[in-house]
């Protein structure tokens, strides 16, 4: 009996010593992070295409507009009166990249390989799938095997190299203009019939449009200066007349249906502009879209108004009707998603956008999320928007990389009193830069790593880096928004991995 008691006492002492040693060891060791995870599926609620919406707009009749919508992988089109009344709604067999209006209120929806001609009542023609361009319901340029042809004429264009084409009726004869890419990768405008080269070779032609009488072409091309400028050239050939240019890119050109004027968009870091110009007099009118990016747009049939799709960091794609002088502006189709944010440019950093909650409390400070590598900082993004809805945060949106954020940037951030410097997250690609604050968390893709999407956490002192493997840019943002929201709420990270 005594021997059993002594044996139990020795066992208890040994266990006590092991517990003390383990406790001391845990005090001296660096806290370990979870082992790298091979495959962590993104939470479905944060899927990047769950609500993303893209619109195109075509003003078909004096009081009727057709809007196509892409939401996720589903596409549809609907006709609205200018008062916002739904006239018809129908699915589309593909998601159009562009739409154009032709005579009679018809709309041609297109991608590089597909097309669909939709009538005023929403019906579509079964033989419209190979239409490349149209001036009326009967005057069309069709894809036939390897050629683009106008039936009953001698217009035949080899399809290879054709980037886009337009057609017009010129005194009862069809005139076709095509943007053609050559073997060197440059592009030029060519008129058929006759294969008349209208322009020199440009690095890229953004867009072009034939006048309704087929006599002139307005186009946007990248010139030697590096930017896109707008020019005018006769379909009979001759000198190019460059319209008064802007230092920023001029894109998405369209002839007005009447009035001998053209319009185009100007891409600016602090918000896009729409400019219309009366060709004979060079009289210009401007519509300002402050801190917003324009997308598809269309003239009204009388040339006095435009319908324009725009997006901003606090509002998804929506459609406005605007007079060409910018005085009268009315929303026709509201955004499906919006966030209650104050949006402004970050002083001293061109093209960089700063957002915060619209209503701030006295002495409130909020975490900061810096979204880097954004190609279009002025556009709505689902991941950013859903994070703003989920937790109160400030955001900086910039096209630069995480490594481009130098000391001047961080000094500017530090000077903003309502940003909490102890809670900073940087989302993007590239290694952790020396200028990045030590307490900031970097969430970045690992370049060159394949395999299933996953993430791992690394810590050096206070500096934490979250590395993602094999994600797309959309996946990086989607994961980052979910990860940051869970961190700030104090809940488990995605997939409860922590």
Question: What is the C-alpha radius of gyration, as a whole number of Å?
Answer: 29 Å
CATH class of the largest domain: Mainly Beta
Number of domains: 2
Tally of DSSP helical segments = 4
How are the strands of the biggest sheet laid out side by side?
Answer: 28-29-31-30-32-33-35-34
Beta-strand proportion: 35-45%
Measured between the Cα atoms of the first and last residue, the distance is 48 Å
CATH-level-2 architecture of the largest domain = 7 Propeller
Q: Which parts are unreliable, with pLDDT below 50 for 5 consecutive residues or more?
A: 1-40, 42-52
- What is the 3D form? elongated
Question: Helix proportion of residues, in percent?
Answer: 10-25%
**How many beta-strand elements?**
35
CATH topology assignment of the largest domain: Methylamine Dehydrogenase, Chain H
Mean pLDDT: 84
Structural class: mainly beta
Main sheet record: 8 strands, mixed
CATH superfamily of the largest domain: YVTN repeat-like/Quinoprotein amine dehydrogenase
Could you describe the 3D structure shown?
- The protein is mostly beta strands and 498 residues long.
- It has 2 domains: 53-333, YVTN repeat-like/Quinoprotein amine dehydrogenase (Methylamine Dehydrogenase, Chain H, 7 Propeller); 339-496, Rossmann fold (3-Layer(aba) Sandwich), CATH 3.40.50.
- The chain is 12% helix and 43% strand.
- The protein has 4 helices and 35 strands.
- An 8-stranded mixed β-sheet has the order 28-29-31-30-32-33-35-34, covered by helices on one side. Strands 1-2-3-4 form a 4-stranded antiparallel β-sheet, with no helix packed on it. A 4-stranded antiparallel β-sheet has the order 8-9-10-11, with no helix packed on it.
- A hairpin with a 5-residue loop joins strand 21 (261-267) and strand 22 (273-278).
- Helix 2 (382-390) runs parallel beside helix 4 (473-489).
- The radius of gyration is 29 Å and the shape is elongated.
């Amino acid at each position: 009996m005594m021997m059993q008691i002594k044996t139990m006492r020795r066992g208890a002492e040994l266990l006590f010593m092991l517990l003390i040693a383990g406790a001391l060891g845990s005090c001296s060791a660096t806290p370990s992070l979870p082992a790298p995870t091979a495959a962590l599926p993104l939470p479905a609620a944060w899927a990047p295409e769950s609500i993303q919406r893209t619109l195109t707009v075509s003003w078909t009749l004096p009081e009727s507009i057709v809007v196509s919508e892409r939401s996720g992988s589903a596409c549809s089109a609907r006709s609205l009166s200018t008062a916002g009344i739904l006239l018809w709604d129908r699915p589309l067999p593909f998601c159009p990249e562009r739409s154009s209006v032709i005579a009679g209120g018809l709309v041609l929806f297109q991608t590089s390989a597909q097309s669909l001609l939709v009538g005023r009542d929403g019906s579509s023609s079964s033989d419209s799938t190979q239409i490349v361009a149209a001036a009326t319901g009967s005057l069309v340029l069709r894809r036939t095997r390897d050629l683009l042809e106008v039936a009953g004429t001698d217009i035949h264009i080899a399809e290879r190299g054709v980037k886009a084409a337009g057609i017009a009726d010129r005194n009862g004869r069809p005139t076709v203009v095509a943007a053609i890419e050559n073997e060197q990768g440059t592009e030029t405008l060519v008129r058929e019939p006759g294969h008349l080269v209208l322009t020199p070779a440009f690095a890229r032609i953004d867009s072009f449009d034939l006048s309704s009488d087929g006599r002139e072409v307005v186009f946007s091309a990248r010139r030697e200066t590096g930017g896109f400028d707008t020019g005018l050239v006769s379909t009979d050939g001759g000198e190019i007349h460059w319209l008064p240019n802007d230092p920023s890119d001029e894109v998405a050109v369209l002839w007005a249906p009447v009035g001998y004027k053209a319009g185009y968009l100007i891409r600016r870091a602090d918000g896009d502009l729409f400019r219309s110009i009366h060709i004979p007099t060079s009289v210009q009118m401007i519509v300002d879209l402050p801190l917003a990016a324009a997308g598809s747009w269309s003239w009204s049939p009388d040339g006095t108004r435009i319908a324009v799709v725009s997006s901003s960091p606090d509002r998804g794609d929506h459609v406005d009707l605007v007079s060409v002088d910018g005085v009268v502006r009315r929303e026709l189709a509201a955004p499906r998603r919006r966030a209650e944010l104050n949006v402004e440019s970050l002083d001293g950093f061109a093209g960089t956008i700063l957002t915060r909650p619209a209503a701030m409390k006295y002495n409130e400070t909020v975490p900061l999320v810096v979204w880097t590598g954004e190609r279009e900082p002025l556009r709505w993004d689902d991941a950013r928007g859903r994070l703003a809805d989920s937790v109160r945060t400030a955001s900086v949106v910039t096209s630069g990389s995480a490594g481009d954020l130098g000391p001047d940037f961080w000094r500017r951030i530090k000077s903003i009193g309502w940003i909490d410097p102890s809670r900073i997250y940087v989302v993007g690609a590239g290694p952790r830069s020396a200028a990045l604050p030590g307490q900031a968390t970097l969430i970045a893709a690992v370049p060159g790593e394949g395999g299933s999407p996953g993430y791992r956490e690394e810590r050096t002192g206070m500096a934490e880096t979250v590395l993602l493997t094999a994600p797309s840019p959309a996946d990086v943002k989607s994961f980052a928004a979910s990860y940051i929201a869970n961190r700030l709420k104090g809940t488990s990270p995605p997939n409860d991995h922590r």
